[in-house]
Amino acid sequence: MCEEPDSPTCGTLVFKPLKLVGRNSRQRQISNNNFMLKLTESKMIVSVTGATGFVGKRLVQRLHADKHQIRVLTRSRSKAQSIFPVKEFPGIVIAEEPEWRNCIEGSTAVVNLAGTPISTRWSPEIKKDIKQSRIRVTSQVVELINNSQDDARPKVLISATAVGYYGTSETRVFDEQSPSGNDYLAEVCREWEEAAIKINDDVRLALIRIGVVLGKDGGALAKMIPIFMMFAGGPLGSGKQWFSWIHLDDLVDLMYEALSNPSYKGVINGTAPNPVRLGEMCEQLGSVLGRPSWLPVPEIALKAVLGEGAAVVLDGQKVVPTKAKELGFPFKYRYIKDALKAIMS
Ligand SMILES: NC(=O)c1ccc[n+]([C@@H]2O[C@H](COP(=O)([O-])OP(=O)(O)OC[C@H]3O[C@@H](n4cnc5c(N)ncnc54)[C@H](OP(=O)(O)O)[C@@H]3O)[C@@H](O)[C@H]2O)c1
């Protein structure tokens, strides 16, 4: 069962009667009730897979800070408990797979971020796992949402996918309308998305095609910086590859907005408005780190750390966030320099 403080059943918000005194207590009771109703309406119950990861952690922190109820859907309760200690995250629900059903049913929304990390050494087994883990979790989440009772079915599914969908190119520009590529990552993303679009029609689906997420405590940047420092930071590989990035805070804000804004549906590129060539990214990183950009970092060094997974950084694509711009999403970090400065400060 899904254990939730103050809640007799998973997903039920308790409406506590107000104690009121004074002359206009009846009017005040009504207006306070309206206020409470509004408050209750605006508070979401959000189930999150992959919540313990680089992106999920920040999303959970944001939602929890705004008093939304969070249900962490994880493979490991002990890992999740160490990341979200109850003292810092009172009221958070942590559920392993057998309990996911009880958590998803009654949630307002589900955010699906789970999957075996991609920026690693790729063996045939890992490649299989990169694809299968995403399809498996997404299919499970979709099935649990679809099978929820009508009145307890989440209204929204935000499901992660990646800009790898488009394949790689040094010359083309990709937006949400662009076709998919032919390589392995494109295939992973297509099948990952195909699993998500099996969601019932009455559930709003936002598929976020995420670029390289830049943040302090994880992701590709954390792995790149030590290599970069070692080589005093020149471009990685040829430096001409496109690097479609997004600051972690912008990605989390985009997902947060998508949870409650009905206009956010279908495919939305989760990338900053100004992708850069990798050479420029390295130059900016060098200048922010106070390192001149003069020695090219050999591909082999990155591959030694990331294995074939280095492809995520070394073979890029220029992806633009056409949909997010149309929706008027206010990016905080439009330029790589500002994003890197904020991260390194
Ligand atoms: N970070 C990026 O630059 C980037 C770029 C494009 C797309 N994305 C996508 O966005 C999502 C979130 O990214 P992230 O960087 O936060 O990922 P992450 O740090 O690697 O976290 C992913 C989470 O997925 C779960 N997970 C790991 N292996 C799994 C497996 N074999 N089966 C089921 N679940 C597994 C884990 O949660 P539990 O252990 O709690 O189950 C883990 O915390 C991922 O799907 C990723 O592919 C990320």
UniProtKB/TrEMBL annotation:
Residue stretches making up the DUF1731 domain: 297-343
Lineage, top ranks: Eukaryota, Viridiplantae, Streptophyta, Embryophyta, Tracheophyta
Alphabetical list of InterPro entries matching this protein: DUF1731 (IPR013549), Epimerase_deHydtase (IPR001509), NAD(P)-bd_dom_sf (IPR036291), SDR39U1 (IPR010099)
SUPFAM superfamilies: NAD(P)-binding Rossmann-fold domains
The name this protein goes by in its record: Uncharacterized protein
Superkingdom, taxonomy of origin: Eukaryota
NAD-dependent epimerase/dehydratase domain segment(s): 47-263
Pfam families xref list: DUF1731 (PF08338), Epimerase (PF01370)
Coiled coil: none
